[in-house]
Amino acid sequence: MASHSDTLVVFFGATAGANGAKLGSDEREIILLVWQIVDLHEKKVGKLQRRLVKPDTLELTDQSKEDTGLSVDELCKAEPLDKVLQQFQQSVSAEVKALGRSSYRLCVDGPLIIRQALHPEASKKNLVLPECFYSFVDVRKEFHKCCPNAGPVQDLTLPAMLEYVCIPELPLSEQVTGVKEVRSMVQLSLHILADPYNHTFSCFEAVKVKFESGACSKTEPVDSETVIRARGLPWQSSDQDIARFFKGLNIAKGGVALCLNAQGRRNGEALVRFINQEHRDLALERHKHHMGSRYVEVYKATGEEFLKIAGGTSNEVAQFLSKENQVIIRMRGLPFTASPQDVLTFLGPESPVTDATEGLLFVKYPDGRPTGDAFVLFSCEEYAQNALKKHKQILGKRYIELFRSTAAEVQQVLNRYMSTPLISTLPTTSMLPVPVLATPPFLATASTRDCVRLRGLPYTAAIEDILEFMGEHTIDIKPHGVHMVLNQQGRPSGDAFIQMKSADRAFMVAQKCHKKMMKDRYVEVFQCSTEEMSFVLMGGTLNRSGLSPPPCKLPCLSPPAYAAFPSPALLSEAALYQSPLLSASRTPQPTHSPHPAPTLAYYPPQHHPAQLYMNMNMNYTAYYPSPPVSPSTVGYFAAPPGSVASALAAQQPHAGSPMMPQHGALVRMQGLPYNAGVKDILGFFQGYQYAPEDYSSMVQMSQDQARSLIQPKEWLCL
User: Fold this and answer.
1) Is the confidence at residue 653, as pLDDT, over 70?
2) Helix, strand or coil for residue 498?
3) Predicted confidence (pLDDT) per residue in 225-243, tens digit
4) What gap in Å lies between CA 698 and CA 691, rounded to an integer?
5) Fewest Cβ atoms nearer than 10 Å: which of 91, 200, 397, 573?
6) Is the pLDDT higher at 442 or at 54?
7) CATH 3.30.70.330 corresponds to the domain 224-310
8) CATH class for the domain made up of 315-419
9) Is a pLDDT exceeding 60 seen at residue 609?
10) Class of 7-206 in CATH
11) What predicted TM-score, i.e. pTM, was given to this entire model?
12) Largest CA distance in the chain
């Protein structure tokens, strides 16, 4: 259509529900269309056309009956929307041709009938609208250009504009709904075309035919007044589906960002960015409109939220998404050994990938390990549809899931995996400073990656099987360095940790033994740190999303303050060992010793009774799991030997602070059988060191108390 039209088609519509300022906000169907042609050169008008439209649901609200004066009986005799639109196009084309004109453009009183009623309804009914409905002029904005003193555009109404330019009201014979509005717009248009205004209609508004995908940079400014959050979307909906839901409104390029949950799957929410605030405000009017059988909630959002989801900084992703007008498909569940050629072969010649291997993007962890996800570009919808037909077909020994995806989802998935460390740390807290109990030399919590993790072990695997699996690398294992992880039921979890003599040895094992077969299963071998191993052995879970720390449901019953005292070099490993209680280090209380050394924690005398329960509400729980060493060879209680404790007490600078004697560590148990007795408990701890005088309290402990205590994850050790 020509950019400068010589004919206007003044257009009006009404729905079976809300009209006026709320037109289209309730999803009701169009029931009335009225139009009339205006020749801009000759200042002449054509014949007024009025058509009733039969809706699929023959119901009218009371307000619609009052506004339009129509009844259900009248609508039953009308034609459906597609037929009426056909009549509109034929009638207008014939009149324009009779006038000797070549082009025309719609003129409406506000954008609602086009953007909020006609396009959404046509989209739901899969109707193809004529080209003229993708461009129009708003008589309010044109009038505001002529008469800027008449008031803001959003406050202008037809009666107010007519009154401002002194145009009298129409006679009663023309007060029929639709006829009155079209006649008024025609009069107003002719008035501003004449002297003294001599106005030229030039503010053409466009409706985007198709949503444009694209990448978004985190440095790109995004106006918060243009962003909304859509909630309740079907999980399989794509960016094109969301753009269709907002049909009639112009979404910015790459302006649909599907939100993912912690597992990387869509959570039914999306952030949508529009070209301006006007379109955003119209989108908010679609709150609780339906996408299929689901209603979608629409709320305001911020530019920061949009950039957090859709923004990216990776050059690899930017290059991948630089190819415009491509259909993106996400593949999930790929074998870790799958190559680009394997993926191309799987998709087949009927689904050619754009630029072959250049159109593939494999998602990887920061250390380069594959995640099993990949994104694929196709140049057209047909190729993408052919690819989607291979959903849940087999590649290697795995079935592959295929979904439609978006540029924002590519950014989000890559951001999630590439920014996730191998193990995440707990957030820091502003609680009272509590030092971590000292850790033995053989289980230092440094970040040195001198351990390996074995994942996918057969459940029947024993320590001897692991040693055989390690082969020649067995000589590089530290003494008591094999730790098999058990689940809460005491059964093998399929994981094990091995402490190597150095980080280089651990790296070599991970390279040589990764995906090596043990019995009938391949075992994954990853290099990790002692800190990561300790967290898992204390009950945490290390997975793709990082570390899930042990559950923190119970308040800490330990005293609120700990004192630290110097520990000379003569202390044995048995005296030094204590499992870390918290994953985030806390600064110990300063000592006055001129020779700083590893510290032990003990309970000091309480100077005020209230201090005993000061941190009942602290947001963590102390865990006391079995140690990852052989209990028969290495001591694992925190109390130093009596002679060492006495020597340390003598070194205290202040005699007024005596050290409370400590008789080992207290272990609290949860889930005891109701008929469990002392002998059962002692049998449970068979092979561990305990003082005979320290188990007498077990008899006095009620079953309710025992069930309220902590049950840590256990492990077997070499």
Assistant:
1) no
2) strand
3) 999 999 999 888 888 899 9
4) 13
5) 397
6) 54
7) yes
8) alpha beta
9) no
10) alpha beta
11) 0.57
12) 115
